Amino acid sequence: MEDMMPLMTRATHRASGLVTAVRPEQFGSPTPCAEFDVKALIGHLEWVAEMFESLARGGERTEQGPYAGDFPERADRMLTAWSRPEAWEGTCAALGGLPMTTVAHLWLVDMVVHGWDLARATEQAYEPEAEAVARGLRFTEQSVEMGRRSGAFGPPVAVPDDAPPFDRLLGLIGRDPAWKP
Q1: What is the reported pTM?
Q2: CA quadruple 35, 36, 37, 40: dihedral positive or negative?
Q3: Phi, psi for residue 127 in degrees, rounded to 5
Q4: Largest CB tally within 10 Å, which of 1, 14, 42, 49?
Q5: Cα–Cα nearest to 121, from 45, 26, 23
């Protein structure tokens, strides 16, 4: 918890800043996450924040509702739930018994990658924290097959072996680092 919580917090705040800078006329714009336009991606982030708050409290997976426009508030509640030491203990029954530390890594990767998705789609500047990228890449390299089986990751996109770590992370989960709107 001691090393993950600051990474989760900073990645979440970066994502919140990107969300709040989106203009309504950008809602229909495509994103690198092919199944979502900008509004649907923000709605997905809202749902993920609500679900990860529930998971941190020992609750169930939640169902995704419609876009509400309150991601920053939901994200803050999620961070509050994860700031409790007991949130990090044991396993998550709602996600098939994954260790809670694994669940926290899922959140980190989601924030880092979906932050990039949103920034690219809305042409905002985005530079994820190097430590969050390194942590997310290590985690994803170990769990990529689980992510593909669950549908969270797409087929890999080839990137050069000497590509920057963030490009390797994006390619590993199925994003094209060169994507442009």
Answers
A1: 0.94
A2: positive
A3: -135, 100
A4: 49
A5: 26
